[in-house]
Design goal:
Radius of gyration: 15 Å
CATH class: Alpha Beta
Strand content: 5-15%
Order of helices and strands: EHHHEEEHEHHEHH
Helix content: 40-55%
Distance between the termini: 17 Å
Number of helices: 8
CATH topology: Uracil-DNA Glycosylase, subunit E
Length: about 160
């Protein structure tokens, strides 16, 4: 049973078409952040990928639209109850942050900066999109402090040590 939950927003256009979440450059970066192979990432014995919405919500002039609100309200709690072994929830995006205990309106940057207050059971990450280059450059602590601890925790969980 999965011990790590990836709580994202909704599939992007490419993932929606392929039927595989994070089947794009964002997924490559997220797997790098976690320190896992593609095979491990998609193995539901290790990692559960449960977005706030299961369908591509469409796009706007600033990027993808948010997940439809009725999706998570309808099925999310029941689905998460079926994942009793989750020890680490990796949260991506404002809508997932609100659902997983940060509250409505929290800025992703603030949630990521505050990572130690939820550690080791939950961690907020910025979206791993290539469009976020400016965020990554403005927040070097993320790569220097947060990612090494995340990789270490994931490795420990997956090897059982």
């Amino acid at each position: 049973m999965a011990r790590i939950l990836i709580a994202g927003q909704a599939p992007g256009r490419r993932a929606h078409l392929s039927g595989l979440p994070f089947d794009d450059a964002s997924g490559d970066r997220l797997r790098q952040w976690l320190g896992v192979t593609r095979e491990c990432f998609y193995d539901d014995k290790f990692i559960a990928i449960v977005p706030m919405g299961f369908c591509y919500p469409g796009s706007s002039s600033t990027g993808d639209l948010p997940p439809r609100p009725e999706c998570a309200a309808t099925w999310r709690a029941a689905l998460l109850e079926r994942l009793p072994n989750i020890e680490l929830t990796v949260v991506l995006g404002q809508y997932a942050l609100a659902w997983h205990g940060w509250g409505n309106g929290v800025r992703v940057t603030d949630a990521v900066r505050d990572w130690q207050n939820h550690w080791p059971h939950r961690i907020a990450l910025p979206h791993p999109s290539p469009r976020n280059q400016r965020w990554f450059k403005a927040n070097p602590y993320f790569e220097l402090e947060v990612l090494p601890r995340l990789r270490e925790r994931v490795a420990t969980m997956l090897t059982g040590r």
